[in-house]
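Researcher: Last one for today. Full complex below.
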Amino acid sequence: QKEVEQDPGPLSVPEGAIVSLNCTYSNSAFQYFMWYRQYSRKGPELLMYTYSSGNKEDGRFTAQVDKSSKYISLFIRDSQPSDSATYLCAMGRAGNNRKLIWGLGTSLAVNP
Amino acid sequence: DAGVIQSPRHEVTEMGQEVTLRCKPISGHNSLFWYRQTMMRGLELLIYFNNNVPIDDSGMPEDRFSAKMPNASFSTLKIQPSEPRDSAVYFCASSFRDRGGKDTQYFGPGTRLTVL
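Model: Here's the assembly. Have a good evening.
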């Protein structure tokens, strides 16, 4: 079993839809949870960063972490065609270890 | 800042040839990461450096792969000899940990390697 599981999709939604992306994990030592967005033929870029449990909101994006269930989510409200990309979850431990464990990524297409 | 710089952007080579990928991290960042990305395996960490010192190379596939960071502004990933299964996009990322403990990795544009 992989440490981080993420459904690769693809996910196709109409413009304006609410999108829900999810990852599950098995290692309770993870403390930092991130969502990266990767456009085609580009490097990943950080979208949301959450420490421990709870919610974080930034504009149309909301990140949720449920450590008891080992489950994280990214919600996109009022989705736009420009949101079409691959979304990768990543997790890290506290302390000096800088290594992140990555999900496979979910491919999202928002259709106008 | 120009961001993380990688070269070359594309590399096509024949099996058995040596391939060298280069990376210039963002100035001031003290950690550097080399990743490989494929459709089947996603983003895999190959090796990372902290203050120019290799910390974790457990992701390096085999002895054909080597990485160096001679100074804070330059790193190389070398594959010798290259094989078709090495075909992938190779990313370099750099990061620093701020006072709040937040550690953000910034990725370069990647090198698309094709080994024929």
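Chain A has no helices and eleven strands. Chain A has a mean pLDDT of 93.
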